[in-house]
Amino acid sequence: MRRLVSLLRSLLRSLLRLAAGIAVLATAPLAHAQYAWVGANGVRHFSDRPPPSSTPQHRILKAPGQLAPPAPALPKPPASLAEREAAYRERVKLREEQGKTDQQEARRQRDLAERCQSARQVKAELDSGARIGRIAPGGERSFMTDEERAAAAARANQILDACR
Q: What is the rounded average pLDDT of the residues 25-44?
């Protein structure tokens, strides 16, 4: 019986110690209640008392129950010479590719402008109503019929539609 009482007492002491430890740990953040704010002259202030009421909310950096702002990211260490060289080569390669695509686009625009100009000239000739002659491979001269003129006008109009 004595042993049982002794065992119960030690168990009760252990439970009381555990409860006291939990209570201490639960109140520890309250003991560290601290405010941090930037004053009117730009100086940082730290205190266990709240900042003056004239301090705007955006200048209060830390308050109890408020999460601290994230720490600023550490600056990236400078790249090694090999990394800088690889980055340079990549930029040069991209610049060359961009130059090629720019040249191709300029060439395409120039070809389109020439094709449009030719189509405008053909359309003007067809719309003028004048007879349009052609020389056959055998050296014979012939003139466009109305059907050929209409087909040529339709082709010129298709090209001009792409120009607008």
A: 75
The pTM of the full predicted model, rounded to 2 decimals, is: 0.43
Amino acid at position 70, single letter: P
Closest CA to 49 of 36, 65, 66, 38: 36
Show the tokens assigned to 111.
Answer: 């070809």
pLDDT at 31 over 60: no
**pLDDT per residue as tens digits for the range 36-76:** 888 888 888 888 888 888 888 888 888 877 765 666 667 78
Angle at 40 between CA 43 and CA 52, to 5 degrees: 100
| N-term to C-term CA, the chain | 107
- From the list 72, 162, 61, the residue with the least C-alpha distance to 118 is 162
C-beta neighbour count of 150 within 10 angstroms: 12
Is 36:44 a contact under the CB 8 Å cutoff?
yes
**CA distances, 158 to each of 65, 126, 143, 161 (Å):** 72, 14, 23, 5
